[in-house]
Design a protein that fits this description.
There is one protein chain. The chain is of the alpha/beta class and 496 residues long. It has 2 domains: 3-243, Nucleotidyltransferase, domain 5, CATH 3.30.420; 251-426 and 466-496, Nucleotidyltransferase, domain 5 (2-Layer Sandwich), CATH 3.30.420.40. The protein is built from 17 helices and 22 strands. It has a 7-stranded mixed sheet with strand order 16-17-15-14-20-21-22, sandwiched between helices. A 5-stranded mixed sheet has the order 3-2-1-5-13. Strand 16 (283-286) and strand 17 (293-299) form a beta hairpin. The protein starts with a strand and ends with a helix. The model has no long low-confidence stretch (mean pLDDT 95).
Length: 496
Amino acid sequence: MGYFLGIDIGGTLIKAGLYRANGEEIAVAECDGETVSPQPGFSEREMEPLWRDLCQTIHQVLSLADITGDRVRGVSFSSHGKGLYAIDKKGLPVRNGIVSSDTRAGAMVVELQQQGIEAVTYPRSLQPIWNSHPAVLLRWLKQHEPAQYEAIDRVLMAHDYLRFRLTGEATAEITNISGSNLFNQQTADYDPVLMAAFGIEEVADKTAPLLGSAELAGQVTATAAAQCGLPAGTAVYGGLFDVVGAALCSGVVDDRTLSAVAGTWSIATCVTENLIPSSHPFAWGRYCMEGRYFVHEGSPTSASNLAWFLRQFCDNDHQRYAQFNRWVQERSKQPSDITFLPYLFGSNLGSNLPGGLIGLGGHHDMADIVHAIYQGIVFSHLVHQDRLVALNPRVERIRMTGGPTQSDVWMQMFANAGNLPLEVVNIQQSGCRAAAICAAVGAGEYSSFTEAVQVIQPEVHTYYPDAAANRRLRDRFAGYLNIAHVLNEANQHANH
């Protein structure tokens, strides 16, 4: 029996997982790389070390599984979105790769928004302008590093580059490149009008051919085989944007289930058969299933806030999480008079909104603060979730993945606040598993992603909302929103 290899590429961490066709996990290995920050706001990865990290991780997972590479029937990827990993005509990087957390183009984004460029770009790309969109980063390169910009032969994203290193074929996987602001959602192709709007007309000749998630990209070359441990000829398939991977791995195939991710970012994703008009600027993309789209929102407002608190005030002692959960359970039915704004790393209710504790008094203790942090993170998720449920009222349930799912009391709070059944997916490595599903579908183990999801059903534990708790939390949520809006207005006045 053969195995399928799923590679998950984060901002620094690369994970490799080996799976049987039925989704059974055999082994997982990881390698933590380094980002480079030569200037404030820069977040880069050296691309040759990135390739070496991938090779090391593949060797490790094969060793852990005690199998040889010739038993791998196919390889695919899940990857962070946005960023830029461009190559020249010789296939060499034109510069360091740029990671999705990069903010060097922040001032440029503000300038473009003030010029009204989104009136031209959004109706075509259905992407709000973001600091690390490939389109924005290419404009930045053209202005600040013209020699590197001129040298570009193919515009790639993270998994596109690593697929290229494995196969020698430069292609752009569709679920990820559809979120680049170079791609027209209606025509399902690159759009020269978008490139012209960003002032990067030359990029029309620098794009890579589009590739489906389960489409064969090529085979591992002899050169790559000598480094990565997989034999030459091993099949390599397209892959997924990690947001899509989380939804697929959760069994999301239609618009009745909303995929939620709680981790560094709070992310909410719906899958639809049609583009739904809205006055709110949602981010849309092409789903891995033919004829379907995904629509999502996200912000860095989730459990990373609690992780910061643990580092700063609890010596990063992960054993404290059990105590946190007990405190939250004890406080869950008591009146709550502290509001925590989980904006330590960004906001989803206004630019430059600070994080903080509002209403803190001398009678409060650590348990009150921890309860407020849990609640504030739930409210931040609820901002995205409510918007998507309003867009798509057919949503019947939430499927959630991520670290906070280990906390029963936190998941019950999420269910109570959302007033929908919350199904927690018992999958630790959703990125690797989703990538392996891509390879299994591509290899013909399944006729489609729909069949694969039907067979590889995730194990779920369901939390049902409590009506009384929902009323209490919704009252608190209204206060949370009011505080955030007042602070946002105050910040805007202070900056003018």
